[in-house]
Write a structure and sequence with these properties.
With about 200 residues, this protein is of the alpha+beta class. About 30% of the residues lie in helices and about 25% in strands. The protein folds into two domains: about 120 residues, 2-Layer Sandwich (Glycoprotein, Type 4 Pilin), CATH 3.30.700; about 70 residues, Dna Ligase, domain 1 (2-Layer Sandwich), CATH 3.30.1490. It is built from six helices and eight strands; from the N terminus they run αααββαββαββαββ. This is ACR protein.
Amino acid sequence: MSATLCQNLNKGDLIQLLDVAREAIRGHFADEIPQPPQLDLYGRKLLQPGACFVTLTVNGQLQGCLGTIAARSPLVMEVHNQARASAYQDRRFLPLTEEQLDDLQIEVSVLSSPETLDVSSEQELLNYLSQNKVGVILSDQHRQALFLPQVWEQIKKPADFLRQLKRKAGWNDVYWSPTMSVKTFTVSSIKGHYHFSGI
């Protein structure tokens, strides 16, 4: 998905994607076979291949967060799939329960295409992050870790941000490699409560 398409999503587009995520979760609890979105109900932008993450919180505590950085499927299908995965397949958490729905908040983040950041040292990266609160993907060898830009809301300092990202990848706090790959990205995002009734 191009950065241009990500930036071209308007509020109406994002509201539709949030509804898709809600419906994907609702379908799990309804007495029916969960159905994927009807693609003919959506406009051209939402049918283009897109990369996204869906983040779930219950009473402000993370309950699931999964997504993809590669745009392979129509965006509306990707949101549907990642919402279900975040609710029931994130191995860090027990599957979402019906009792949690009243306190559930859903955030859909549509990613721009990651761009390689040419830095030769960790300090160069820290200098960049001090001025740019973007999403970051670190990868080296067979390990990779990603933080969405929203993580800056909880981790304010670049050094702490980078330290936690390294830990997520399984590296120690001082790890750095000449072959480290750094990519950055932005998101268009929307957040809302799960407020279906009658389930």
